[in-house]
Amino acid sequence: MIRPTVGFTMNEDKPVVITESCLAVLVASCLETPSKETGGFLIGREEENRLIYGQRMDCLRLDTAYPVQTKKSGRGYWKLGNLRAYNRIIDAIKSMGFDLVGEYHSHIDNSAELSDDDKKFIEIEYRRLESKGIEISNWVEMVLNVNEKKYERRQARNYSCSPLKNRIKIITKGVRDLYMGYSITIATYWFDRENHAFPEAKVFLP
Ligand SMILES: [Zn+2]
After folding, report:
1. For the chain, which residues make up each domain, given as ranges?
2. Among 39, 92, 93, 115, which is most exposed with the fewest C-beta within 10 angstroms?
3. What's the distance, CA 163 to chain centroid?
4. How far is ligand 1, taken at its centre, from the CA of residue 118, in Å?
5. Is the CB of residue 181 less than 8 Å from the CB of residue 171?
6. Are 77 and 109 in contact (CB under 8 A)?
7. How many Å lie between the centroid of ligand 1 and the Cα of residue 56?
8. Could you tell me which of 131, 132, 60 has the C-alpha nearest to residue 102?
9. The CATH number of the domain covering residues in 16-204
């Protein structure tokens, strides 16, 4: 399904691999409220020497995602609704020995780029985690840009994905009704806290 794009080398930033179970959660979470932003946490692990399209490389593997239920959201924003609830999510994940590796959120404004508000939010978030004694070596922020698609003919309910430079584009058909579907572009960004920079990572599906 996904093929590496030309020019990908081992020297590029560490790739992010989204497992199928994680992808299912992400897509369902975004399409639950396609006209509102949504978001949550990414749970995963750094993995050494994973075979990705014939090359062994170190990557960040995303095992699952947790959609935050106590969020406040609308057109163009989502935020935490309740700090204590948020802390309980983090404590629960950590108490079970899983690694919190980042966050995801959807966009409905036709952009998979991080906004200035997103960048400020990530810096605050990271400091909050540090104040809880949680150290994260690699924090990743994923943006899922959701667009509605209408078809003139009936579509079979199906799904496809294709690479788009560093990103992945998912198309779901037959969602809501057989003349509708959604396209979702997935982009991920590392948080380089020393330089306050957000370089884009390369995303893969297994
Ligand atoms: Zn955003």
Report:
1. 16-204
2. 92
3. 15
4. 5
5. yes
6. no
7. 32
8. 60
9. 3.40.140.10
CA 98 to ligand 1 center in whole angstroms: 25
For residue 94, give the H/E element and its range.
helix 83-95
Q: How far is the CA of 6 from the centre of ligand 1 (A)?
A: 29
pTM of the predicted model over 0.90: no
Token pair belonging to 34: 């396609």
Please write the tens of the pLDDT for every residue from 178-203: 999 999 999 999 998 888 899 999 99
* Burial (CB count within 10 angstroms: exposed 0-12, middle 13-18, buried 19+), residue 181: buried
Angle at the Cα of 164 from the Cα atoms of 56 and 187, rounded to 5 degrees: 80
Residues around ion ligand 1, judged by CB within 5 A, are 115, 118
